[in-house]
Design goal:
The complex is a heterodimer. By secondary structure, chain A is mainly alpha-helical. Chain A has one domain (6-432): Formate dehydrogenase/DMSO reductase domain (Formate dehydrogenase/DMSO reductase fold). Chain A is 72% helix and 0% strand. Chain A has helices spanning 6-15, 22-48, 63-87, 94-119, 144-177, 180-189, 197-230, 242-268, 277-308, 311-322, 326-338, 346-349, 352-379, 394-417, 423-432. Chain B is an alpha+beta fold. Chain B has two domains: 4-51 and 122-166, 2-Layer Sandwich (Alpha-Beta Plaits), CATH 3.30.70; 54-119, no CATH class. Helices cover 47% and strands 16% of the residues of chain B. Chain B has helices at residues 14-23, 41-46, 54-78, 92-119, 150-159; strands at residues 4-11, 29-35, 139-146, 163-166. A four-stranded antiparallel β-sheet of chain B has the order 2-3-1-4. In chain B, α3 packs antiparallel against α4 (92-119). The chains are: A mainly alpha, B alpha+beta. The interface between A and B is large, with 60 and 58 residues.
């Protein structure tokens, strides 16, 4: 990477903004139809009622909440890579930070849809907002669900502003080399950025504060998501380890999604010179670390159930491993904590097919983990006469497919129309090995 | 009265640009600005820049956010002043979580306000007078001089190892 010149960096990124091929637009159209499918399912549910989903007592939280937690988790690694690694001056983050931040913003947008979908009566969503009303009713600020609304809204706003602020110098680079309508669009988007000394002086300071503020936020958001469960008394949920367990799981899934997105991107956009095997190797090493934490959390939950002498807790965990949803449980364990151990082998960490395959398995495993926790808790709680099972309906599958299509639709549009690698930070990397080092 | 002429010196190396800036002291021309493709510590030193004040806005935002979050939670609870399950009406520990989220949100808003006010963005007029190569690989040093001195200024930039042109 150190052999690159500044103009090579600009040219490589700007080449990705050239008119797209027919194949690209075919994929975009396919994703759009997926979105229509999801939107159609949601519209059907609004028209007919929430009962078209599979949620029913005792399992009132189904795939909509699983998807919500899954997408919030995916959103976490963008901030980890961008903010935390920035604070640690880890230069290897620079080529992947922009795409990871983009992943964060779009994943939070998708996640944010699911509480609305789950509500059923979407038209009264404003009840959750604190606004003066005749009945003098206010949201309960002692409820983790209200914490969640505040945390997710804050995370969406902060990650979007961080993303856009970080892009300003690059938008100016595109503006300076574009013509016609594109030049006019980027002229407006870049806010007249010219790289003046005064701009950089304040920008680097503001960027540092962004990173410093986003770091505790990212930890808090998934902790708050975990309290949606941990503050309930349901067996399998009511645990003090949930916050670190969820945060580690979120970073685990987010890093896997970063690999899933980066590997095709580096081939299609010829980014091999930026997103080197060393960088993928570093992501894989981090996945080993988060995988070990997640594996430890799985084990310690069983230990706590045994050590507590609480028969309800013990039965809940026995049932997870051997009950109706044991398949999801073993997929979770194997994909999240056994398969990532392969990354201890250097050859696997540096093999593109292995990296890609394992990243997809981890994503499947992390979705299963949310299924096991959310469904497993309420389906099999205190009273045997209230036990029940749950399976998603075709409507819920439709919404699930729609959410993936929406995420990839937005991501694909972004990487083809905006600079998907930070040219400015790459130049800094070439110059001195760090990004925004001031 | 003599009119002012502006000349830009373009340097591929930040050290040359910084050296040109430092050598300007005592010369009959004024430094008007520096543009660079990325933030340069060397140029910051040459410009003898003070600390940015963006942090003051960030801090103010954070304090306002914390107070707003906790106050909102406490005020709304007091509007329905019923003790439920023995819990206090104004429960400080959960309100700290609300306060924390508001702190981060408002600190970021303060950060943005600080950035906008200090950099004076958006500002579209200066785009027409700057050299677009400065977003690529050049460090641009903009200086002005009285009419008649422009050739000397041009020669100064060339002598310092850069390219130079009139604006």
């Amino acid at each position: 990477m150190s052999g690159l010149t500044y103009s090579q960096i600009d040219q490589t990124v700007l080449d990705t903004l050239r008119p797209a091929s027919l194949r690209y637009w075919a994929v975009i159209v396919l994703m759009f139809f997926g979105i229509l499918l999801g939107a159609g399912c949601w519209a059907y549910q609004i028209g007919v009622g929430i009962g078209v989903g599979g949620q029913s007592i005792p399992v009132a939280w189904g795939t909509y909440l699983i998807n919500f937690v899954f997408w919030v988790g995916i959103a976490h690694s963008g901030t980890l890579i961008s903010a935390i690694l920035h604070l640690f001056r880890a230069a290897w983050r620079n080529p992947i930070a922009r795409a990871a931040e983009t992943m964060t913003v779009f994943a939070v947008c998708v996640a944010g849809l699911f509480p609305f979908i789950h509500l059923g009566r979407i038209w009264i969503v404003y009840y959750i907002l604190p606004y003066p009303n005749d009945r003098n009713l206010w949201p309960n600020f002692q409820s983790p669900l209200v914490f969640d609304v505040i945390a997710i809204s804050t995370y969406l706003m902060v990650s979007s502003l961080f993303w856009y602020t970080g892009m300003l110098p690059d938008l100016a680079i595109v503006r300076d080399r574009a013509t016609g309508l594109r030049k006019r669009i980027f002229h407006i988007l870049s806010l007249g950025w010219t790289g003046r000394f005064e701009e950089w002086r304040h920008y680097t300071r503001a960027y540092l504060f962004f990173a410093a503020l986003a770091t505790p936020l990212v930890i808090s958001v998934h902790s708050v998501v975990s309290w949606d469960f941990a503050l309930g008394i349901v067996p399998g949920w009511h645990s003090t380890i949930f916050a670190p367990y969820f945060v580690a799981g979120a970073i685990h899934s987010g890093l896997a999604m970063v690999l899933t997105l980066m590997i095709p991107m580096r081939t299609i956009f010829r980014y091999e010179v930026f997103i080197t095997k060393d960088i993928l190797d570093n992501i894989a090493k981090t996945i080993v670390f988060t995988g070990l934490i997640v594996g430890y959390a799985y084990a310690i939950e069983y230990f706590l159930a045994w050590y507590s002498h609480n028969i309800v807790e013990q039965e809940s965990f026995r049932w997870r491993a051997a009950g109706e949803y044991s398949l999801a449980f073993w997929v979770m364990v194997i994909c999240n904590s056994v398969v990532p151990l392969l990354f201890f082998i250097r050859k696997v960490r540096r093999s593109i097919p292995w990296l890609f395959g394992i990243s997809i398995l981890i994503n499947i495993g992390m979705w299963s983990e949310r299924f096991v926790i959310i469904i497993g808790g309420v389906a099999h709680d205190f009273m045997p006469n209230a036990w029940g099972t749950y399976s998603p309906t075709i409507i819920e599958y439709g919404v699930l497919v729609g959410s993936f299509c929406l995420f990839f639709f937005l991501f694909l549009l972004f990487v083809k129309h905006m600079p998907s690698v930070s040219m400015t930070e790459m130049k800094e990397s070439v110059h001195k090995g760090v990004g925004h080092a001031l | 009265m003599l009119s002012e002429k502006q000349v830009i010196g373009l340097f591929k190396d930040e050290n040359l640009a910084a050296s040109a800036i430092e050598s300007m002291a005592g010369c009959p021309w004024q430094l008007r600005g520096v543009n660079s493709p990325f933030p340069s510590e060397r140029i910051m030193k040459a410009m003898k820049a003070g600390k940015s004040r963006v942090g003051h806005f960030t801090l103010a935002g954070g304090i306002i956010g914390f107070l707003s979050g906790v106050s909102l939670a406490a005020y709304t609870s007091l509007q329905w002043s019923l003790i439920v399950s023995g819990k206090p009406v104004v429960a400080l520990i959960p309100y700290l979580i609300v306060g924390f989220e508001f702190t981060i949100l408002f600190a970021v808003f303060g950060n943005i306000v600080g950035l906008i006010t200090q950099t004076r963005l958006p500002e579209y007029r200066s785009v027409s007078t700057y050299d677009p190569r400065c977003s690529g690989e050049y460090f641009g040093v903009l200086a002005s001089c009285a009419e008649g001195n422009q050739d000397a200024l041009l020669a100064f930039f060339k002598e310092k190892g850069g390219e130079a042109r009139f604006l």
